[in-house]
Amino acid sequence: MSSPDLEIASTGALLHVRADLGAFRVTGADRLTWLNGLVTQEVGKLAPGSGAYGLAVGKTGKVLAELWFVAGPDHALVITARDRLEGLLEHFEKHLIMEDAELSAPLERAVLFVHGPEAAAVVAEARALGGEGASIDWTGHGAAVVVAAEADAGPLVAALLAGGPARARATEAGWEALRIGWGLPRFGVDYDDQTLPQEASLEKAAVSFTKGCYLGQETVFMVEKRGHPKKKLVRLTVEGSEALLAGAEIALPEVGAVGAVTSATPAEGGGWVALGSVKYKHAVADTAVVAGGRAARVIGVVHDR
Predict the structure, then answer these.
(1) For position 305, what pLDDT does the model report?
(2) pTM above 0.70, yes or no
(3) Which parts of the chain are beta strand (E)?
(4) Which CATH number fits domain 4-182: 3.30.1360.120, 2.60.40.10, 3.30.420.40, 3.30.70.920?
(5) In the chain, what are the domain boundaries?
């Protein structure tokens, strides 16, 4: 994988405006401890200006939404996919009993991710320009999130891009290639609301196993400590120049189908890099498989840093 986006993300700051994400605000003295009981990540001790990456799961442990948190001095921002906002707010409201916490309606906010070694510096500049943000290295390559009023987003992005020579705005195609190459699964593409965190290989990046109880914790904990998931999301290299499409079968000659490709991008020097879901026993690095009828090899699970 080689691209201008990768070069910028490796040396400076790649700015990626996420129009598919939205946010809501949680206020009240119990906001963080209450949120901590509803999500997989430790957020109860977030200091103002810090952030976290996690998941909301249901009682059965299956993922309801992918989440990013930004702690402010008197509130917390919860960032998730726009098409999950209303359902997530309804889900959270059901579990708000006597706590001093209040949820806002979806906010008119733009969400900007920053990738690369300058991510923390970009967050500081964004705050000085009126935005909110936090360093949240959910990628393993240096990352942060910035949130700003939608009306201010254009000027803010322009100012941040002008703040250094090694900065650029990501294209959607460029980011898609980058996140697949890095092994970052996307909700609604590589996994969905029928998936356990371990099946999406998100347990290392998005789940705390020491924080204590939260909704759905029993199932997630049992899968991790007393068993294993039925399937895992893995990274693969695939030979061939023809397009590799989502849904392509992943198989072993001696056993037949063991999974399917979820997303793919052309690799530098030929072939493809892909993400795919395979049966647990085959989610082992260097396992030779066939993907879309072509020779392929498992690199490892996604989000493995």
Answers:
(1) 56
(2) yes
(3) 13-17, 21-27, 51-57, 63-71, 75-81, 102-103, 109-115, 132-135, 143-149, 167-169, 231-238, 249-252, 256-266, 272-279, 288-291, 294-301
(4) 3.30.1360.120
(5) 4-182, 203-301
